[in-house]
Amino acid sequence: MKNVKNVIAALLNDESGQDLIEYALVAGLIGLGAVVAMTGLSGKIQSSFNSVGSSLTNAV
Question: Which InterPro entries match (predicted)?
Answer without folding.
Answer: Flp_Fap
